[in-house]
Specification:
- The complex is a heterodimer of chains A (290) and B (313).
- Chain A has 290 residues and is mostly helical.
- Chain A is built from 12 helices and 2 strands; from the N terminus they run ααββαααααααααα.
- Chain A has a single domain, classed as MetI-like (MetI-like fold), CATH 1.10.3720.10.
- Chain A starts with a helix and ends with a helix.
- In chain B, helix 7 packs antiparallel against helix 8.
- Chain B starts with 11 loop residues before the first helix and ends with a helix.
- By secondary structure, chain B is an all-alpha fold.
- Classes of the chains: A mainly alpha (290), B mainly alpha (313).
- Chains A and B meet through helix 1, helix 3, helix 4, helix 5 and helix 6 of A and helix 1, helix 3, helix 4, helix 5 and helix 6 of B.
């Protein structure tokens, strides 16, 4: 092959790769554009802050936003400590033995378990065995189990970014292992963990299958205030979108509301992702200075 | 300074402090270990829950019927039938359809980002494509229902457009970020010496990519495809909303299909708790779990081997 044909071959090949990448980005733009352009029609302050009215054919989605907030809160309160503690063991204490390999294998496999199976598991464990009502608590804990492997992995990544010398410094001064972790490791891993937590939260907030059978309600406009809210059923943004798109008696009429719900849900998730990326960026810059 | 010497055996008080300290350290370590073991516990609990809840149905219906029969009709007044073959085939069909679309695209994107794109472009393109991973499955399903469905209906004259093709396209979108990011890792971790050797022999960057870099990264790429497959098999809301949900053996991609995940999601709310129908849904979930577990395990083994080899090189 002459040098010229090879040069052309390379141009063509790279062109195909660029086209493929551009195509994927185009798909993303088409989806986002469709949701936001058609959702923009109903988006208003009133849509966000008012309740559904007239058999959910009018009004807003405030109860679904509040429901998503509470469920996500339960998820975080459960999954962040559990994930962090497990990550501390794996990154700070664990030796390379069979037990640790089993734990890591379990974590990787948990992250591959389908979300609907988590839904069934939550339903069996919390509703049938533990007899918790269909509730924010049951839904949040189910999502908590789902996010656990992500939280462990994210926390471990955060712990790994803390330089070894920080630990060695403390240990050399006679600090115990736990004192070292508490004073010289955890404080520096906080931003990384925060990033991981927000990303996990964004994914949990968009999940539907795990809350189908553990507490999400078709219509539940009034959530009680704090401790009681935990034992109440709830509306959630992704479930509300599912209902509005497939289960409502007047599907065509409520389509704009479905679009509005989708836009709010994606908007929320994009904001959370942006926050996570920003924190990571700030963190990286700070570390460069250290 | 004698008093603070913790190695002084004469100082009983300090000895007690040391014992307490050692005990506390051990207790803390055990506490963290318990949290690590919790993940193992959850996995075992999920497995045993699926099995014990599925067992009553597995016992009642002959095993041959589950995997050989294509007839799924647990609520039939005449004769209830529990064949899940059609559901398994539908699940595999939409997943493989998704891979046919997502694998070439995903690998091409990964190769571009890892090997071709200038650093500035990479810094922008990578996070942009990662946004795709953040779109909830229910939104993707909604898009399939209201945009892609009507489009396909017009293009193929296929009813309402809620069918296997629709599901495959959407699942491709969902599996793409996984395939892309794991493949990219594999391509990036190919040693620079290999590429340099090829370039030094006069190969172009394209020839190097196709004949050296990609073959060297092949096992990682295969692992990414398996992970994407696992993701597609386990996806629920997307296929539930966009595939048409007819529980029959599909004859083509243009037939409406109903996957295993969608069946569970549709029927659990409608069954009587404790009935054979109720338990049969756990059997479906059990098979689903085994399928995703196997796929993930294979990709895991491949990735471990790659890591060992790259670490050793």
């Amino acid at each position: 092959m002459s040098a010229r044909t090879r040069k052309w071959q390379e141009k063509l090949g790279f062109g195909i790769l660029i086209a493929a990448t551009a195509f994927v980005i185009l798909v993303l733009i088409v989806i986002l554009h469709d949701i936001f352009s058609k959702g923009a029609g109903v988006l208003s302050w009133e849509f966000i802050t008012s309740k559904p009215r007239k058999g959910m054919t009018e009004g807003g989605i405030w109860p679904a936003i509040v429901g998503t907030f509470w469920v996500s809160l339960v998820t975080v309160v459960f999954t962040v400590p559990a994930g962090l503690f497990a990550a501390i063991y794996l990154n700070e204490y664990a030796a390379q033995n069979r037990l640790v390999r089993v734990i890591r294998l379990a974590i990787r496999n948990l992250s591959g378990v389908p979300s609907i199976v988590y839904g069934l598991f939550g339903f069996t464990l919390f509703i049938m065995i533990l007899r918790i009502n269909l509730s924010v608590l049951a839904g949040g804990l189910t999502l908590g189990l789902l996010t656990l492997p992500w939280t462990i992995t994210a926390s471990e990544e955060a712990l790994k970014t803390v330089p070894m010398s920080y630990r060695e410094g403390a240990l050399a001064l006679g600090a115990t292992k736990w004192q070292t972790i508490r004073t010289n490791v955890l404080p520096y891993a906080v931003p990384g963990m925060l990033t991981g937590t927000i990303l996990g939260l964004a994914r949990a907030a968009g999940e539907t299958a795990p809350i189908l059978f553990t507490g999400a309600a078709f219509f539940w406009p009034l959530l009680p205030s704090f401790p009681k809210v935990l034992t109440s059923q709830f509306m959630a943004l992704p479930y509300h979108l599912f209902i509005m798109a497939t289960q409502h008696h007047a599907i065509v009429k409520v389509r704009p509301i479905a679009y509005g719900t989708a836009a709010v849900l994606i908007g929320l998730i994009l904001i959370m992702n942006a926050a996570a990326v920003y924190i990571r960026y700030r963190f990286r810059k700070k570390y460069k200075r250290l | 300074m004698e008093g603070v010497n913790v190695d002084n055996p004469q100082s009983a008080g300090i000895g007690r402090v040391r014992a307490w300290r050692r005990f506390r350290e051990k207790a803390i370590e055990t506490f963290f270990l318990a949290n690590g073991l919790f993940a193992v516990l959850v996995l075992l609990a999920i497995f045993s829950m699926l099995f014990t809840e599925g067992w009553p149905a597995l016992k009642r219906v002959p095993f041959g019927e589950w995997v050989m029969s294509t007839e799924w009709d647990p609520t039939s007044p005449v004769r209830e039938s529990y064949g899940i073959l059609a559901l398994i085939v539908s699940t595999l069909m939409v997943s493989i359809g998704a891979l046919i679309l997502a694998v070439p695209l995903g690998i091409a994107c990964a190769a571009y980002i890892a090997d071709v794109a200038p650093a500035r472009v990479r810094e922008i393109v990578k996070p942009v494509i990662e946004i795709l991973a953040g779109i909830p499955s229910v939104v993707v399903g909604f898009f399939g229902l209201v945009v892609l469905g009507p489009l396909l209906a017009k293009a193929f004259h296929a009813g309402n457009g809620l069918n296997g093709v629709n599901g495959s396209i959407l699942l491709a979108v969902m599996a793409l970020p996984t395939i892309m990011s794991v493949s990219e890792d594999a391509i990036v971790s190919v040693p620079q010496e290999l590429k340099n050797a090829s370039l030094a022999l006069g190969a172009t960057r394209w020839q190097t990519l196709m004949r050296v870099t990609l073959p060297a990264a092949l096992s990682g790429i295969v692992a990414s495809v398996m992970l994407g497959m696992g993701r597609a098999i386990g996806e629920t809301m997307t296929v539930l909303m966009a595939c048409g949900n007819a529980p029959a053996m599909p004859h083509s991609f243009l037939d409406p299909v109903r996957t295993m995940t969608a069946t569970i999601a549709i029927e659990l709310g409608e069954t009587v708790q404790g009935s054979t129908h109720f338990h049969s849904l756990f059997v479906i979930a059990f098979f689903l779990f085994l399928m995703t577990f196997a796929v993930n395990l294979v990709s895991d083994i491949i990735l471990q081997r790659v890591r060992k080899r790259m670490g050793g090189a």
